Amino acid sequence: MASFRVLVSDPISEKGVAALRSAPEISVDVNTGLKPDELLKIIGDYHGLIIRSETKVTPEVFAAAKNLKAIGRAGVGVDNIDRSAATDHGVVVMNTPSGNTISTAEHAFALMLALARNIGQAHSSMVAGKWDRKTLSGVEMFGKRLAILGMGRIGTEFAKRAQAFGMTVIAYDPFLTAARAQSLKVELAESAAIALTGADVVTLHIPLTPDTKHVLDAERIALMNQGALIINCARGGLVDEAAAKASIDAGHLGGIALDVYEVEPPPADFPLFSVKKCVFTPHLGASTAEAQENVGIEVAHQVKNFLLSGEIVNAVNMPNLDSRTLESVGPYLNLAESLGKLLSKIAPAQCDAIRVSYLGPVSELDTELITRKVLTGYLSAAHHEAQVNLINAPAIAKAHGISVTESTVALATNCAELIEVSAIKGNEVCTVAGTFFGKSARIVHIAGHYVETNPSGKFLFVENDDRPGIVGTIGTSLGSASVNIANMALSRTSDRKRAVTVIEVDTEPPTELLAKLRATPGIIRVLSFEL
User: Fold this and answer.
1) How far from each other are the two terminal CA atoms of the chain, in whole angstroms?
2) Are 394 and 375 in contact (CB under 8 A)?
3) Where would I find the H helices in 428-524?
4) Three-state DSSP class for 291?
5) How far apart are CA 387 and CA 376, in angstroms?
6) Is 460 exposed, middle or buried (0-12, 13-18, 19+ CB in 10 A)?
């Protein structure tokens, strides 16, 4: 008799259903098109649920799903699942971020070729009865300089195809190491601007975050060669569409191919529709028979393996922890994540290794979860394809060529207990550290400076020459911008040449204020971030 029941409530590949049924311990019911109230009535009988985008898994569903242990999403997006409720009910949620890798990479590549050779325009011209060879002349991709922003699974696959076409590939990814870039045979750029400078073709394979919104704006588009082409099959909003149109109209940008848009579907009066040198598709990146079959098979195996052996792959929520483990490591997890986030803001990009060191009572615990929480904080600013969490953080780090080690504390410290996190790039080492004063977590070391500040909040980090008047200038500038100071920590090097000011503020400092401070004589670095 079967031990587990799995409900497939959205259509998936028959091979996926067969993979589930291959296990005698699992019985499978395929019941698609359920209305919300119908799902509520039956979900309590099931241990596993496999869905696509149609089924909405709400808090009410989790409340009724007394036996539910796992949800498998055949696809990447999990917006139709209340992940917080899933975690509260101890249900692991898994998606399939790799199933559409080839599909999306091929679609982006097809758009590049269609744009370069005017395929869409040539087709329209032909069916209109024209034979317009002169105005539809295109450009070759051989020898062209390709800039790839984002070297996750899809960006990597695009690079392989571009190299086969004889293109020169330069890539920017904040977590791609030099060793990994060398193995992929791509030139590693230290910034997006460097990658874009002199590019003939640009393709985007990065997530949409506040930092990446309009990553291709007017200023960066101007860095590309005249006649350059842009391809976006990643997320709408990465390209400033108005700036792209203006650049095409001005004769600088050669054309743009879009599969995703800031507003989907785009309105009938979408400005780029009036531009001749463009190719548009309706978010078809993952729309192939193979991709749909792959995600169905992949999600079936994930749910089956979890139910039978406890194996978790591509989880997007925090796993259910037993009370004993949570009690022992729980107080350290928030501090660890804050240290990881802080390190990502102040350390050099594209580090080779992350080292997490422990001193005192914390070193006697099972520190794996704490280290994973550090990685979650560090990587979350630029995650690819899947959400970074306790489960997938080590795998994402490995995929980007980042080695992760644990050790004992190297800092000279008076603290009885310390978590020290270092990012290592070549000979450069950037370190942050935190401790507990009683039950209060504190950050006590930032990049060579001993400070004491909260591990959460909005912060302004200023590094400057150690000379009179700079702290006053900072305070006056904040006051003029109506930014209130909640807390301030000062530190300087033993030779009194450098100093830092770490300021906790009530509101995010405006861009104009940051620019003003950076232009102030004696100020070396200004960073604004939230932990």
Assistant:
1) 50
2) yes
3) 470-480, 511-518
4) helix
5) 9
6) buried
Provide the annotated active-site residues: 235, 264, 283
Contact 425, 416 (CB under 8 A): no
- The answer to whether residue 285 is domain-embedded is no
Residue 315 included in any domain: no
Q: Do residues 195 and 170 touch, judged by C-beta distance below 8 A?
A: yes
Distance separating alpha carbons of residues 271 and 177, to the nearest angstrom: 39
Asked if residue 439 and residue 381 are part of one domain, the reply reads yes
Number of domains in the chain: 4
Rounded to whole angstroms, how far apart are CA atoms 335 and 347?
18
pLDDT attached to residue 320: 43
Q: What is the mean pLDDT of the chain?
A: 89
**Letter string b/e over residues 86-118, b meaning 16 or more CB atoms within 10 A of that residue's CB:** bbebebbbbbbbbbbbbbbbbbbbbbbebbbbb
Q: d(Cα 8, Cα 29) in Å, to the nearest integer? A: 6
Q: What is the DSSP string of 337-394?
A: HHHHHHHHHHSPSS-SEEEEEEEGGGGGS--HHHHHHHHHHHHGGG--SS---TTTHH
The encoded tokens of residue 366 equal 């099972």
Please tell me whether residues 422 and 517 are part of one structural domain: no
Whether cis (ω within 30° of 0) applies to the bond prior to 394 is: no
Same domain, 207 and 222: yes
Please state the three-class secondary structure of 493-515 as a single string.
Answer: CCCCCEEEEEEEECCCCCHHHHH
Q: pLDDT tens-digit profile of 200-232?
A: 999 999 888 888 899 999 999 999 999 999 999
Full residue range of the structural domain in which residue 266 is found:
101-280
Same domain, 169 and 265: yes
Q: Which amino acid type is present at position 161?
A: R
Extract the tokens encoding 170: 């330069």
List the structure tokens of 494: 């033993």
Which of the residues in the chain have pLDDT under 50?
A: 320, 384-386
The DSSP secondary structure of 158-172, one letter per residue, reads HHHHHHHTT-EEEEE
Q: Which helix (H) or strand (E) holds 452?
A: strand 449-453
281 backbone dihedrals φ, ψ, rounded to 5°: -135, 150
Looking at the structure, tell me whether residues 134 and 206 fall in a common domain.
yes
C-alpha to C-alpha distance for 336 and 434, rounded to whole angstroms: 8
